[in-house]
Structures are given as structure tokens and as C-alpha cells.
Design a protein that fits this description.
- The protein contains 6 helices and no strands.
- It is mostly helical and 163 residues long.
- The chain is globular, with a radius of gyration of 16 Å.
């Protein structure tokens, strides 16, 4: 089974195409994403970068594997209250709680992503190796975490290089 995740409808440049410099970390941006999968910084209105995409990917993997996220059951009387309650849950949950029931190595993926600075280029080979370990690990959800990933080469030559 192969999984393809594509949504370019919300895509934005994170580097200046003329200088290849990373856009600055700034606030006041609208949150544009599906609430459960939005990164913490994105939900707070900060500019987004590689780190935010990877955080959203982690949430997507968790949701695809378990069928829910710890904050999908958070509900109040208004949309604004829901957004605040979801944000508070995202900010207060530990990596171990978030990754409960998943291969232990997946915690390394989440921890690495959370440790990235705004303009830090991720080590995609390292992240791929972690996800490959996850797909090889027997869990309560055998082969549900990106089952074909271990056989999929990672191309990092097509990832823009920001200074």
C-alpha cells in the first residue's frame, strides 16, 4: 500500500526566491489549515516553515494510525473556544502521551521536529530513517505506519536550500 499526501492549496514560499534567504519569523498571520493538523505556531498566527509542515505530518501519521488525535474530542460551545481548547491541549500534551500506542522510535521523530528552530533545515535522511524504523516495528497497529516507507528512496535534491 502506498500513501500520497498532497495539498498545495495552502502552499506558501518560505524562502525569498531571489536571495534564497529564509523568510523571517513573524506573527500576525492567519491560521490556514485544518485545525486538528495545524502546527502550534501556525495556530498561534506565526509564519510557518519546514518545522510546521513536519509537525502537521506527525499529527497526520498519528491520526491515520490511531483514528484520532488527543484534541479531536475537545469541544465547547463556540468555534473560538474550540480553537483555544485545541491549542491548549496541543501545548500541554507530552511527546510520550501524543505518541502513545505507536512505535517508541516515533517519539524521536516528534521530539526532533519540536526541537527544530524556525529556519533550521531538517535532516530529512534522519527523519526517513526514524520512519523506516517505525514501519519495521511490530505494534498494536502492524504495518499501519507508512508500510512501504522502508522501500521508498528519499530525494532531498528537490528540497530548496535556504540559508
Amino acid at each position: 500500500m502506498s500513501v500520497f499526501l498532497i495539498n498545495f492549496g495552502l502552499a506558501q514560499l518560505f524562502c525569498d526566491p531571489a536571495t534564497y534567504l529564509h523568510n523571517p519569523h513573524s506573527s500576525g498571520h492567519p491560521a490556514i489549515s485544518t485545525l486538528p493538523f495545524t502546527s502550534i505556531d501556525g495556530q498561534q498566527g506565526f509564519a510557518q516553515s519546514h518545522r510546521d509542515d513536519l509537525e502537521s505530518l506527525a499529527y497526520t501519521i498519528i491520526y491515520s494510525t490511531r483514528g484520532d488525535l488527543p484534541w479531536t474530542t475537545v469541544s465547547t460551545n463556540s468555534a473560538d473556544s474550540d480553537q483555544e481548547a485545541v491549542l491548549q491541549k496541543k501545548m500541554s500534551i507530552t511527546t510520550e502521551e501524543l505518541c502513545e500506542g505507536l512505535p517508541a522510535s516515533f517519539c524521536k521523530f516528534v521530539s526532533y521536529v519540536c526541537s527544530l528552530g524556525f529556519d533550521k533545515k531538517p535532516d530529512y535522511q534522519y527523519l526517513h530513517s526514524i520512519l523506516s524504523q517505525c514501519s519495521a516495528t511490530e505494534t498494536g497497529h502492524p504495518s499501519k505506519i507508512l508500510p512501504s516507507l522502508a522501500r521508498t528512496p528519499v530525494r532531498i535534491d528537490c528540497v530548496p536550500d535556504c540559508v
